[in-house]
Structures are given as structure tokens and as C-alpha cells.
Specification:
heterodimer, A: mainly alpha, Serine Threonine Protein Phosphatase 5, Tetratricopeptide repeat, about 70% helix, B: alpha+beta, Alpha-Beta Plaits, two-stranded antiparallel ribbon, about 25% helix, globular
């Protein structure tokens, strides 16, 4: 890698580590200071490395320069310095002894604490995801805007508003107390789940970006399994779910970037290693007596990794969707349950259930009815697919439905 | 939309109407399908609980009797909370309940929201 490729790469992997360590050191009031110091470090890297060539160990260079910048900053900002150094209970005269600990251990601990700070219920969910992407994943505002199909301006405002709120609420960058951990962990898991889904189901055209979102969600969830306090069954269940889903990443999109439906996927493209990892985390998740929605979803995803269309497979998937819907309603789960019912009990039974769903503003609902009526009454199937086409918003969705309509007309 | 409590009752006492363990096992799937169907329609507010057959009844003057079914043979086997527009709709929904297939019944009661109590 030359420095043109190396810097963006290191920015993605190292920025978040240094920022997290500095944030933990400075406290929530000074996130921007931490961000500025690290951004400055990378700016200096791109200037210096271009002129003088790459240092022997670029990562170590970044760590040393950001440490020096931090000490410099503390030295030149007396007011800030006084507040911070007293908070850090340091002797004011010995800046060089300020311990900016960039060991793997402290980096992981800092990132974990930041996850809990950002996934605080006092800020809206989309801001929690945004902050996590920006500071814990090193995503630029533009990439976040792309992922959310939004504009840089909107995202920028959303992030600054969220930071202000965290400051106003005086959120500490720390792991929650044992008595609070379950409740707070739930919020963190929700954010990780949505972050993953943002990548997996997003309508953004940028395939690399979408994969990155999934990888980041998995990395952060993995971080939770590495810590004794946060390594709960539900965390393992979520990680297992993510592994099973991402095992189909290559199979569910064709060369043109279009979604390939589960039924039509080339199972040879399913990633067996991720499937094995999913099974591993699923077995860890089954310790304990708590059954979260992630457990149920992980087992559903597990059954989907079975290639053969057996009765056992669809009976199980139906049973699990029944369970999931008793835990929590979502339109997607309702539609998927009905699909599973058609596989387990036939299309006619599923049609009767589908007609009770009342999801008449959702194009996926009509696409499901189109599927169910195909072969039962192609005329009705066509009518439903046309309604779906009218309701679909993205070109991708419209394209997929149009193809079904063409097949029916043949 | 209003919330309704569905109370499932059946005879737990008379020997000749008791389902066999196999029959009880076979009941699981229709129950799960029915509850899943309610869930898919977003009409399930609370998946409720199943109740064990043993129980006690406490009456005034420290009288405690065994079994919730002293005067009548029927006892509550479980309950759920559903969402429906009217009592009639809730009754219509209850017609799909699997307990009806083994001679049980469903009692439907509208839940009075907290603020209307005051």
C-alpha cells in the first residue's frame, strides 16, 4: 500500500481507537477536542508522509503524534488544562507523564464505554446510530448521509445536536452499573441491530459501503462479547444472527447490484465459515434462561442456512415466527410468517392469513400476495404485483416487481 | 382500538373429558399458529400466560380451599390480551381459539383504561 491508500485505510481502523481513548480521558464535554486532535494527526500524516515517505511503523507514528498533540494541547489551553488535569487528578507540572494509554486493552475498554455513552436513551435512535458510525466506526459525514439516504447537512446537525444533548445530560463515559447493565445493553443491541440492518437492507446503491456497515456492526457486537460484563446470551444471539445473515451477502446480490431473492440464490456462494461462526455464537447464546428476540431471529436465520426445502425446515421457521410475533410485532415479521406458512401449509392457507394482515400501504405486502396467488389465480397475482409496483418507491424494488410481472405474462 | 382480555376456561376435573398427554402435545401447534396469526395481524397486546391446574382460593374469615374450581368444574387455564375495534370483533377473533376444540370456552372482557377509572 502506498500512502494514498494507506491513509484512508488507517483512518478507518485507527481514527476510532485514538478518538475513543481521548474521549474517555477528556470526558463527554470534549468530544470535539478529541476529534480535532485526531483529525489534525491524520492531516499531518498526509502532509509529512507524502514528502518524506512512509514511517517504518505508520500506526505507531499516528499514536505518538496524537499523544504529543494531546500533551501540547493541554499545555496551551490553561483553562481546559486546569479542568481536565484536575479531573484526571494529575500533577499540573508534569504533562509528559499524562498517560495516554493506546494499548489494545484500553482501546477496547474505551470503545466499549463510548458505545454505552452513545447508545444512551436520552438521544434518538438515529442519532445513536449516527454517532456510533461517526466516532466508533470512523465514517465520514458524507458516508453516513449516503447510508441514511440523507444529506450531509442533516447528518451534521443530527450529530451536533446529539453531542450537545449528551453534554447537557452529563453522560459519563463508563460502563453502566451491574444493576443497570441489562436495560442499557438492550439499547446498545438495538443500535447494533439497526446498524447491521442499515447495511443489509439499505437501498443505498453503494455495495462496499453497505458491506462496511455490516462489518462494523459485527465488530462492535464482537467487542461486547469480549468483555466479561457485557458478554450476555442476547449479545451472542445477535452476533450469531449477523453471521448467518452475512453468510449470504455475496449470494443475495448479482453483478448489477440487484437483490437476488432467497429462493433464487446460488447456494454455492453462501459463506460456510460465517455459517459455522453463527452456529458457534448460537451455542453460546443458549446458555442462561433468557429468550430474546435475537435468539428467535438467530434460529430463524439458522434454518435459512439449510439448503434443502424440507417440511421440517419450514415447520420450524413458522413456529419461530409465531414465537417472534408474540414477543414483538413488526410488519416484516408478519410478512415473513405468512411466507413461511405458505411453505409449511400451502398457498391457500397462507392467502387466508395474508388477507387479515392489513398492511395496505406496503409494497412488500402486495408483492407477497402476488407471490401467493401465482399458480392459484395468475390474474389476481398480476393485479397484486401491479399494486406493489405502484407503491414501490425505489428503482430497485420496482425493477424486481416488474420482472415478476413479465414472468407472469409469459 | 381497545384492549380485551381473553380468559380461557376448561374443565380440569371430570376424568372423562381430560385430554391425553398426546392430545395436549398436539394442541401446542394450533395454539402457536393461532397466537402467531394474532401477532401477525398486530392484534396481540400481551401473549399472557398459561396457568397451572393447582391453585387455592382465599375467602373471608381465613377460609382457604384447594383448587380454583370449588363450585364449578371449569377453571382458568390461561389468558392473553388482544387489540380489537369492538367487543364483537374480539368475539369473532376468539372463534379461532383452539380451546374450543376440546370443550373449553373463551370469556372476552374489555379492559378499562387507567385514566377512565378516576
Amino acid at each position: 500500500m502506498n500512502e494514498k491508500e494507506l491513509i484512508p485505510h488507517l483512518f478507518r481502523t485507527e481514527y476510532r481507537k485514538i478518538v475513543s481513548v481521548l474521549c474517555k480521558l477528556f470526558g463527554i464535554d470534549h468530544i470535539e477536542v478529541a476529534e480535532d486532535i485526531v483529525s489534525d494527526t491524520f492531516l499531518q500524516a498526509s502532509e509529512t508522509w507524502g514528502l518524506k515517505g512512509l514511517p517504518k511503523n505508520p500506526t505507531a507514528w499516528l499514536y505518538t503524534v496524537s499523544k504529543n498533540k494531546t500533551i501540547d494541547f493541554l499545555r496551551h489551553n490553561k483553562i481546559f488544562d486546569h479542568k481536565i488535569t484536575s479531573e484526571m487528578s494529575r500533577d499540573e507540572s508534569s504533562y509528559s507523564e499524562i498517560d495516554i494509554d493506546l494499548s489494545t486493552e484500553n482501546i477496547n475498554d474505551s470503545q466499549l464505554r463510548m458505545m454505552f455513552a452513545f447508545c444512551h436513551p436520552c438521544i434518538p435512535l438515529e442519532a445513536q446510530i449516527g454517532l456510533s458510525l461517526s466516532i466508533l466506526c470512523g465514517f465520514g459525514v458524507e458516508e453516513i448521509a449516503d447510508a441514511f439516504l440523507s444529506t450531509k447537512d442533516v447528518i451534521y446537525k443530527r450529530l451536533s445536536r446529539a453531542k450537545e444533548k449528551l453534554k447537557a445530560e452529563k453522560i459519563n463515559i463508563e460502563l453502566p452499573a451491574p444493576s443497570e447493565i441489562n436495560r442499557r445493553l438492550e439499547a446498545v443491541l438495538t443500535t447494533m441491530y439497526l446498524l447491521f440492518n442499515e447495511g443489509y437492507y439499505s437501498t443505498s446503491q453503494d455495495t462496499t459501503l453497505r458491506k462496511d456497515l455490516c462489518v462494523e456492526a459485527m465488530r462492535l457486537t464482537y467487542l461486547l462479547t469480549e468483555n466479561e460484563i457485557t458478554n450476555r446470551p442476547a449479545v451472542n444471539a445477535l452476533l450469531s444472527l449477523m453471521c448467518f445473515h452475512s453468510s449470504r451477502f455475496e449470494a443475495r446480490m448479482n453483478a448489477q447490484g440487484e437483490i437476488v431473492l432467497y429462493e433464487d440464490q446460488d447456494t454455492g456462494l453462501w459463506n460456510q465459515e460465517l455459517i459455522r461462526k453463527g452456529q458457534f455464537y448460537l451455542s453460546l447464546a443458549s446458555k442462561g434462561d433468557q429468550l430474546s428476540r435475537y435468539h428467535v431471529e438467530a434460529v430463524i436465520a439458522y434454518w435459512h442456512t439449510h439448503k434443502e426445502d424440507t417440511k421440517e425446515k419450514w415447520d420450524n421457521i413458522l413456529r419461530l415466527y409465531n414465537k417472534l410475533l408474540q414477543l414483538e410485532y413488526s410488519p416484516v415479521a408478519a410478512l415473513n410468517r405468512t411466507y413461511a406458512l405458505s411453505k409449511a401449509a400451502g398457498k391457500k392457507t397462507a392467502i387466508a392469513e395474508a388477507e387479515k394482515l392489513n398492511l395496505t400501504s406496503d409494497h412488500l405486502y402486495y408483492a407477497l400476495l402476488g407471490y401467493l396467488y401465482t399458480g392459484v389465480s395468475n390474474e389476481k397475482a398480476l393485479k397484486h404485483y401491479n399494486t406493489a409496483l405502484n407503491l414501490a418507491k425505489t428503482l430497485h424494488d420496482k425493477f424486481g416487481i416488474s420482472r415478476k410481472i413479465e414472468q407472469l405474462k409469459k | 382500538m381497545k384492549d380485551f382480555l381473553l380468559v380461557f376456561r376448561r374443565d380440569f376435573v371430570s376424568d372423562k373429558v381430560q385430554p391425553s398427554p398426546e392430545q395436549l402435545q398436539a394442541m401446542m401447534k394450533p395454539w402457536q399458529d393461532w397466537m402467531g396469526s394474532l401477532g401477525a395481524q398486530n392484534k396481540l397486546v400481551d401473549a399472557g400466560n398459561r396457568l397451572a391446574s393447582e391453585g387455592k382460593v382465599v375467602k373471608p374469615k381465613n377460609v382457604v380451599t384447594n383448587g380454583p374450581y370449588v363450585e364449578i368444574k371449569e377453571a382458568i387455564g390461561g389468558y392473553i390480551v388482544i387489540r380489537a375495534n369492538t367487543l364483537e370483533e374480539a368475539a369473532e377473533i376468539s372463534k379461532g381459539c383452539p380451546i374450543l376444540t376440546i370443550g373449553g370456552n373463551v370469556e372476552i372482557r374489555a379492559i378499562v383504561p387507567m385514566d377512565m377509572n378516576n
